[in-house]
Fold:
Amino acid sequence: MIRALYKISSAILFVFLVTACGEKKPDAPNPALIPVPVNLYEVKPAKVVYYDKFPATIVAMSQVDIHAEVEGYVTGIFFKEGGHVTKGQKLYTIDDSKYQASFNTAQANVKVAESNLDQAQKDADRYTFLNEHDAVARQVLDHAMTTLKNAKDQVTAAKQEVTKAKTDLNYSVIRAPFDGIIGISQVKLGNTVIPGQTILNTISTDGPVTAEIAVNEKMIPRFIRLQQQKPNTADSTFSLLLPNNTLYNQVGQIYFIDRGVNPQTGTIAVRLSFPDPTSELRAGMSCTIRIRNDDTAMQMLIPGKAVVEQMGEYFVYVAKDTTMAAPAGNSNDKPAADQHPVTAQRAAQKKVKLGQAIADSVIVRSGLMAGDKVIVDGVQKLHDGSILKVGGAPAQPGNGH
Structure:
């Protein structure tokens, strides 16, 4: 029985192996011959209006740190932090008790000196009269005249002390040097301040402000030319992007170009002035200056998503028509001798030099020619020489560069 079952199993296995060997699996398709679905963009020269962008910092036209000129503790603060102040407005008071006492003493010393001068003048007049009648020794007159001169000098010195004491007394009241916006107080009531060291606050002018940018020294001639142009408020060359990336509603102009180039960076500082009627621009704010490019030449503009970056260099794929042999068929196809070559489009990689990015497009400075068909969708699946299926890729949103 067991031998019979063994014979039957062997027979079944033999039949299975014969059947399997008689079947031939179809060859797997060559991945290199599978067309990649793509979309194309034909390059056409066009005039483009675009802006060069520079990081900028808002700088007040004038800004000063307020220091105390006399020592003492703060006895009064008379402003709203972050508010507007006017020139001459009282901001702080410092304990003036010793400065008032010094002023009073100085005034009293003037009176004493003036009394001594009056007495010295009378003695000098008396001895001068007696000397004219040979009624007093010449030496006595000389002493009287010397005393008179000293008395006059003492009056002058006493008055100088009054001036100094009055100045110190006035410095105990700190006033705004100009109209502007005052910051947060760096001292509180009761704090002791030291002359020339303690910063009480900072004031910056309101109204127009400047935005400072660093410009490559190669661009100096361009900025000098821009500075000489008359500003056009209807179509300004200079505009400002705020930190939230919104466009500021005032136009600017070049305020000044620095006297020299920074030898370490090869850049020069340029400041542009902007009106600020609503105090929207604050000192230290980081913004972006846009300067409209005056290049009127035709530009090659392509979608930014067509660009591929490799090791810091930029490339695009263009579609090229190529001739290739027809693929081999099976036994039912016509003989290969009757088959004709076919034309297909393949991807060719080109190195490009990019210019300014504009929205989701980018200017190509070199590497492409008018009429080139740039691949814009399906780029991520390509390599140099890939066969293309034009119009088969779904449109993808531009990524910009």
Remarks:
- Confidence is low (pLDDT under 50) at residues 397-401.
